[in-house]
Write a structure and sequence with these properties.
This is DUF8094 domain-containing protein. By secondary structure, the chain is an alpha+beta fold. The protein folds into three domains: about 80 residues; about 130 residues, Jelly Rolls, CATH 2.60.120; about 290 residues, no CATH class. It is built from eleven helices and 19 strands. A hairpin with a 7-residue loop joins strand 9 and strand 10. About 5% of the residues have low confidence.
């Protein structure tokens, strides 16, 4: 009967182990599914819509093949459509039958003309600040993605040659075999049972043999105890000690166990998932308004843009190349650098302006806006004890680079509470009535405060404590007046005027119903003679006016203009809080003969 049980166990073990292995090999279905598209025509760009990428669940593997350079980048669908609106392109979308279809799309936007009246060419997609990520290879490109439906891809070669023709998207298929592991393990257990029953049956068969026939009588001899191992007697035991037999059986029985473990060493999808799915505990989050536009940039995108700006401006600073600087700077940030380049060309020891910092990004507040221009505010942490840097960066249209417009050093330890970067904030209109002072009136009000001090009608709106810039301007003007009066009090006079700059303000909303506002003001330092026979000489210790005007003395005087970039927190209308000064940067802008 033991042999019968052993045979049954062997048969069942073979079936179960074979079935388990078959589930993991020949009976297992495909692990991926693919959608291939061949794009015909000479269009230089192809748009792969997000509905194609998300037509099946799971991560996407994108494969593109073409001749020469293969380029792909992804961004928000609205941004990709805006970028491609100036040129004809192919569009891959999901058709009515659920398969990917290709259609031709004509240009819908007219490019702005160049200075000579010709149409501006379509820019290269490589390195555009609009993309969230881009890829470039030769002849073939393959990358793994996990994009939502609102993201799309732009595919190109070099922007002029036809776009790559062969495009394939692959998705994984869930092909779990939850009973493969249990079948293999149970089959191994039956195999072990069968071996044991076979061994017991064989042992029983040997013990149950009948008595043997008697042989020829032999001479009586003394028995020899062959079970005693005694080197002194010179007798060698004819059988191993019992402990050796025991170990041998253990090793024999361990072989099936090792086989079971080896055969059942499958991945987690070879076992049934009996544990309940964990339910995440609720956490406090800030929920965006469903009608709110997406933020202009992501944090990773902003870091990349700032790094590009810092690199390009550093190159421009090294060669004093104003044209290169203009590709990444605008407004007051560009004006101060252009003046610095001029001064460095005429004053040998004139120092360059501080480099643009790019990391680490401490605060990011992107504007929520789907059109252009769009802006984000960034605060970069200072290194080696230096002050943090606050700046605004804007993009004028889909094809332009982001440019830094305002930049200043923070002069306060307190900062207003902002929305998280993944939500962003709306830009406040220049004439908004929802602040204690409209952004378009802020620069003029603060200029009046610098001119008239506490006698200004706006004095009560601004917080004096912590305003390092106002205190510095007052002290600086007193020092300039004292220095001038030591030699020219009887023959001339010095005066100071302050007015709002011509740069439009930028204001982004905070969580406190207020706004962070960036403005510019200009300060004029004018030295004029009071005697018709007197002249104003430029001292050797201040060669700026002479370098910018080209003369070292004047009978009518000199005016040196300084540009100040200022950041404020302006509370919401009805608030009892004063306007808080946040940071500033001041540099010479120009000089002229009166």
């Amino acid at each position: 009967m033991r042999f019968v049980w052993a045979v049954v166990a062997f048969v069942l073990a073979t079936v179960m182990i074979g079935a388990g292995i078959a589930q993991r090999t020949i009976l297992r279905g495909p692990e991926t599914v693919s959608e291939s598209v061949t794009v015909a025509g000479d269009a230089p760009f192809t748009m792969l819509e997000g509905d194609v990428l998300t037509s099946r669940p799971g991560a996407q593997t994108l494969s593109i093949r073409g001749e020469g350079t293969v380029f792909a980048a992804y961004g928000r669908t609205a941004d990709v459509e805006a970028w491609l609106s100036r040129t004809e392109h192919n569009r891959i979308s999901v058709g009515e039958d659920g398969d990917a279809t290709v259609s031709e799309v004509a240009a819908t936007a007219t490019p702005a003309p160049n200075e000579d009246g010709t149409a501006a060419p379509m820019p290269s997609p490589v390195g555009s600040d609009l993309w969230l990520e881009e890829f470039q290879r030769d002849d073939a490109l393959q990358t793994s993605l996990q994009l939502p439906e609102e993201m799309s891809l732009v595919i190109a070669s070099d922007g002029t040659a036809p776009a790559p023709a062969d495009i394939e998207v692959t998705w994984p298929i869930e092909s779990n075999t939850p009973w493969a592991g249990p079948l293999i393990v149970l089959g191994g257990v039956l195999l072990l049972f069968g071996i044991i029953m076979y061994a017991l049956g064989w042992r029983h068969l040997r013990r149950s043999r009948g008595p043997r026939r008697k042989g020829i009588p032999m001479t009586q001899t003394q028995p020899i105890d062959i079970s005693v191992e005694n080197e002194a007697k010179g007798v060698i035991s004819a059988r191993p000690p019992r402990r050796k037999l025991t170990r041998g059986r253990q090793a024999l029985l361990a072989l099936p166990l090792v086989s079971i473990v080896a055969l059942s060493g499958c991945s987690a999808d070879a076992w049934p998932q009996l544990a309940p799915t964990a339910t995440p505990s609720p956490t406090t989050t800030v929920v965006a308004d469903p009608d709110q536009a997406p933020p202009a940039v992501t944090e990773k995108q902003a870091e990349r843009i700032l790094a590009r700006i810092a690199e390009d401006v550093s190159t421009a600073d090294a060669s004093a190349d104003a044209a290169l600087a203009a590709t990444r700077l605008s407004g007051p940030a560009l004006a101060e650098r252009e003046t610095n380049y001029t001064l460095r060309s005429k004053i040998a020891d004139r120092a360059p302006l501080p480099p643009i910092p790019a990391e680490p990004l401490e605060i990011l507040l992107p504007e929520t806006f789907e059109q252009w221009p769009r802006t984000f505010l960034a605060v970069v942490e200072g290194s080696d004890g230096a002050a943090d840097t606050i700046m605004t960066v804007s993009q004028q249209d889909p094809w332009a680079n982001y440019k830094l417009g305002y930049i200043a050093e923070l002069a306060t330890d307190t900062f207003p509470e902002l929305a998280p970067s993944y939500l962003g904030a709306a830009q406040v209109a220049p004439d908004s009535p929802f602040l204690v002072l409209a952004p378009q009136d802020l620069a003029a009000a603060y200029a009046d405060l610098l001119t008239n001090g506490d006698a200004s009608p706006y004095a009560q709106l601004f917080e004096a404590e912590g305003d390092a810039f106002r205190a510095g301007v007052t002290a600086n003007r007193e020092q300039i007046t004292n220095d001038f009066n030591q030699t020219g009090a009887e023959t001339g006079s010095v005066s100071f005027t302050t007015q709002a700059g011509n740069q439009a303000p930028i204001a982004l909303q905070t969580l406190e119903s207020g706004a962070i506002v960036a403005v510019t003001i200009t300060e004029d330092h004018t030295f004029t003679p009071s005697n018709p026979d007197a002249v104003i000489n430029v001292p050797d210790t201040n060669p700026v006016a002479s370098a910018l005007t080209g003369v070292s003395q004047s009978s009518t005087g000199f005016t040196t203009t300084y540009a100040d970039q200022l950041f404020f927190f302006v509370p919401g209308a009805g608030s009892s809080q004063p306007i808080q000064f946040l940071g500033y940067r001041s540099n010479v802008l120009s000089a002229k003969v009166v």
